[in-house]
């Protein structure tokens, strides 16, 4: 079995994807284990000496001024988990849960949390043996970290709560028994170390950012098909235009279009049919490029956060000092994931406008709604409605979550990030955007089929067109549309169109 080694410092987003979606196992490095043991030894010393340290010898939040004896340490940590498991809503899917567990394990592996090695190793064993805690999606403020959902993650670790094992939902105790894993008994600092962090919002946002990067590539492909269907003008993608406004995403996108459309006999030059195209064709490098720059910003922030220590207090064993700080606060990622949602929404926004150009005969010169029997048949009329509805919903979802804050814990925690909401809504926006682009793919392929002359498609668009036609036939008579949309969406979900095009023309940016 392929493995990902964690040390708290070198995890990559591809590692996260490999564990979350490809079933890679996880192993702690020897160096990380040494750091964890050293950190734990210092926590044990603090407890033995009954030093006043938040969350170790005190209560939590507003109860930080309540002293806890060393005899009560185990009860304190268990009580923290069971009382904080207040999540509501449907459960996160398996890939997100695995990402959450991996990110939490990686944060603990940094050696600043005071976790017992056995507890960390048991969490890793759960990942490797497929015990996936049932974690409700809703209930986190994004500060003090993702307390409620992470508490649900911990419940099966201590033999409580619910978990999925081999695809079945059961009690956490039963799941651990079936997997042959011994639950742990938490002691001083451990409950807090396990739930005080940003790993839920980061897991959701990180996987969404990964998917968004691929969706942006696919948006270039779907748009290229539309450009060909509408005999678009390629002069607008000339590198000279973009070198004088050198935004990276813009330059890369223009290059993508020229590479995808290379060899096409269906595109035109300025003045051959029109002097210039509408913005949704002519300004694609600027529009798609801006979203790509935003997504890259998000990926850069994700790379930092997945290797960050985000709990409180942090244990600096080398200095023999524990510091109460605010690394659990999700604000750096809340703003980031709000930005991500907006960037993805714009990919859908412009895609829907291209769909409109395809189905509107006054704009396309093609048969109305891409059907030869208009009136008797409706063709792609309501497919555009569906795309418009998804885009409109995205405009609501794109309202930034991070501008809101509701004080909690008796005003001790008086500013929170709402970062988990930002990440979840970015994921919802991604889903909607992917379905809009799925509609564009089949609409553009249908429009291309109205060309009676035998004109070659571009090097990349030919590959994309063929992939679409493997699963969706050209429309003649009206038929059930949602089935075709779902088949097109599956090509997006498995990234097969992007991979096929890149295999022919090289990597898209």
TrEMBL record:
GO biological process terms on file: L-histidine catabolic process to glutamate and formamide; L-histidine catabolic process to glutamate and formate
Pathway: Amino-acid degradation; L-histidine degradation into L-glutamate; N-formimidoyl-L-glutamate from L-histidine: step 1/3
Primary location: cytoplasm
GO molecular function: histidine ammonia-lyase activity
Residues with the 2,3-didehydroalanine (Ser) modification: 144
Cross-link (5-imidazolinone (Ala-Gly)): 143-145
InterPro entries hit by this protein: Aromatic_Lyase, Fumarase/histidase_N, HutH, L-Aspartase-like, Phe/His_NH3-lyase_AS
UniProt keyword terms in alphabetical order: Cytoplasm, Histidine metabolism, Lyase
EC number: 4.3.1.3
GO cellular component, one term: cytoplasm
Top EC category: lyase
Catalyzed reaction equations: L-histidine = trans-urocanate + NH4(+)
Plastid recorded as keyword: no
Record localization: Cytoplasm
PTM notes: Contains an active site 4-methylidene-imidazol-5-one (MIO), which is formed autocatalytically by cyclization and dehydration of residues Ala-Ser-Gly.
Family, similarity comment: Belongs to the PAL/histidase family.
Protein name: Histidine ammonia-lyase
Gene field: hutH
């Amino acid at each position: 079995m392929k493995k990902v080694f964690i040390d708290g410092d070198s995890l990559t987003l591809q590692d996260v994807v490999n564990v979350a979606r490809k079933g890679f196992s996880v192993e702690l490095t020897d160096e990380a284990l040494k750091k964890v043991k050293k950190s734990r030894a210092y926590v044990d010393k603090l407890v033995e000496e009954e030093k006043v340290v938040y969350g170790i010898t005190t209560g939590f939040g507003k109860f930080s001024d309540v002293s806890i004896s060393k005899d009560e340490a185990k009860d304190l940590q268990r009580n923290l988990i069971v009382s904080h498991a207040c999540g509501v809503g449907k459960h996160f899917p398996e890939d997100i849960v695995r990402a959450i567990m991996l990110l939490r394990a990686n944060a603990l592996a940094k050696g600043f949390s005071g976790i017992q090695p056995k507890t960390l190793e048991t969490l890793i064993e759960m990942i490797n043996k497929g015990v996936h805690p049932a974690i409700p999606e809703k209930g986190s403020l994004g500060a003090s970290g993702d307390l409620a959902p992470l508490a649900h993650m911990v419940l099966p670790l201590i033999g409580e709560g619910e978990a999925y094992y081999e695809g079945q939902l059961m009690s956490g105790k039963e799941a651990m028994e079936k997997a042959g894993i011994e639950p742990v008994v938490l002691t001083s600092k451990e409950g807090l170390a396990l739930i005080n962090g940003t790993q839920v919002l980061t897991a959701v946002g990180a996987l969404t950012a990964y998917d968004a990067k691929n969706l942006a590539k696919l948006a270039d492909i779907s748009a290229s098909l539309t450009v060909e269907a509408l005999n678009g003008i390629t002069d607008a993608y000339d590198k000279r235009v973009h070198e004088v406004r050198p935004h990276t995403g813009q330059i890369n996108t223009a290059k993508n279009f020229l590479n995808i459309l290379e060899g096409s006999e269906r595109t035109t030059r300025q003045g051959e049919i029109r002097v210039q195209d509408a913005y949704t064709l002519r300004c694609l490098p600027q529009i798609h490029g801006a979203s790509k720059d935003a997504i890259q910003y998000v990926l850069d922030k994700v790379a930092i956060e997945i290797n960050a220590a985000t709990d409180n207090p942090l244990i600096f064993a080398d200095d023999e000092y524990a510091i109460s700080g605010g690394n659990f606060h999700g604000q750096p990622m809340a703003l980031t994931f709000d930005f991500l949602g907006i960037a993805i929404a714009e990919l859908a926004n412009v895609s829907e406008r291209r769909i409109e150009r395809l189905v509107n005969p006054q704009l396309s010169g093609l048969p109305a709604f891409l059907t030869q029997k208009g009136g008797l048949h409706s063709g792609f009329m309501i497919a555009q409605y569906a795309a418009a509805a998804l885009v409109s919903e995205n405009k609501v979802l794109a309202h930034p979550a991070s501008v809101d804050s509701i004080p909690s814990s008796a005003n001790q925690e008086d500013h929170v990030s709402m970062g988990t909401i930002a990440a979840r809504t970015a994921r919802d926006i991604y889903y909607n955007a992917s379905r809009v682009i799925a509609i564009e793919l089949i609409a553009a392929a249908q429009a291309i089929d109205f060309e009676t002359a035998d004109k070659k498609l571009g090097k990349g668009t030919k590959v994309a067109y063929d992939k679409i036609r493997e699963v969706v036939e050209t429309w003649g008579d009206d038929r059930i549309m949602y089935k075709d949309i779902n088949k097109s969406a599956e090509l997006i979900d498995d990234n097969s169109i992007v991979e096929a095009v890149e295999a022919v023309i090289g990597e898209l940016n």
